[in-house]
User: What shape does this take?
Amino acid sequence: MRDPLDLDPDGARLPIKVDTATNGEFFPLPLTRAQKRANALAHRRVGEAARRVGMGRRMFLKSACGAAATLLALDEANAARGGRFAIPAEARWEPAAADAALAGGEVVIDMQTHCVDPAGAWAKGADGERWARTLTQIFGQRLRCSGGPFDCYSAEQLVKDVFLDSDTDAAVVSALWGAPESNPTPPDYAARARDIVAAAGGRKRLLIHGGVLPNAPGQIEFMDVLAKQHRVDAWKLYPQWGPAGTGFHMDDPRFGIPVLERARALGVTVVCAHRGLPLPFLDAAYSHPGDIARVARLFPDLTFLCFHSGFEPGYVEGPYDPGNQRGVDRFVRAARDAGFRPNQGNLYAELGSVWRHYMSKPDQAAHLMGKLLATFGEERICWGTDSVWYGSPQDQIQAFRAFEITPEFQERFGYPALTRTAKAKILGLNAARIHAIDTGALRRADGGDAIDRLRADYCAAPNPSFATYGPKTRREMLRHLAAGGVP
Assistant: This one.
């Protein structure tokens, strides 16, 4: 059955995805009236522009003009004062104008992507049956998977969505929660995914972050295996989760501190933690981002990334309020209270899911980015998208490239401008510094690596689906949770 949120009258999806899909960690939220109005307006504007250039709708939607027309409709529908997409009106029908606004030449490094092993040991037995049933019920029909129920989340799918259908140059496969025997992305599969996209000549196209659940038996000791056997590039923590339903704080002397001490001893000194974004039916107290700021001060020789930046789905982001204990303000206050200053220190904000959630709400997006820029600076914010749950991240990249904080909001709230230089740092240069990635090698013009060759072939006949894969309704989310959940 056609989903009116996704498809136009001819059955084609918009290239900028404004829908209710989640990453499986929060319940789908209804679209606002402005978002619904923007989708309807975008379909109309796309049709007008396609007729003007004499192009079929489906082909037009694959072009940069299709993305420009959709983003311009977002601006038109919202009449925002603080955030806008700096795209000229003629970009709807002039490819050169659309490319100038959306193409960008910066390196893009995605610090949070996900894939699932379709045939791992975790997928067998009762747990595997629950996962299979969940993914089939929630995602299988929409994705029209040609193989098994997990193939849509494989490393191969990640290659298409992230490396072929977007401008991403390098990405991180970030761990999901779950003990080794039941983890949908076990470290050996993440390592195989890295091998699938391994670049000729040693380029770093895919990195892996090893999951550590220190409140589960044997996990701290398992860090040695992750570092020495699987050669993880960083650690990923889910402090809200626990085997008995109780999480931990990152500065907890029983669970949190030993992880960081072991990370230091093993020489893998980047630590990423899921902070904010409360997980359904788990104690939200353990999702508060205050602890990551505290431990960043305690361990100045480690680098800390706050995944999701304290994001709280559905919360309306506004000007910073130091007394507020909701949304991104919690992380902002924690960082400021800990003494962090813009462009200094070892604490970073990360944009996975949070940018996608707010990019279709321009004023809230302006407050989000303004607060992060004012607190952390353009050198301490990292790009992340939570793909493949949201399909290809290209729409997130294009929206970010075109977005700007208006002079009005800069003056009223003291927000820095989101300049082209700042965007280049956020989209890739900051991650390159953290992970010692040679950005020149990623863009080497000597014949390219396997991904470059794939891209060249694919660009001759691109076939983006513009689909999102995560749960879109409360019923889908409840099925998903009842069957074990996809983090």
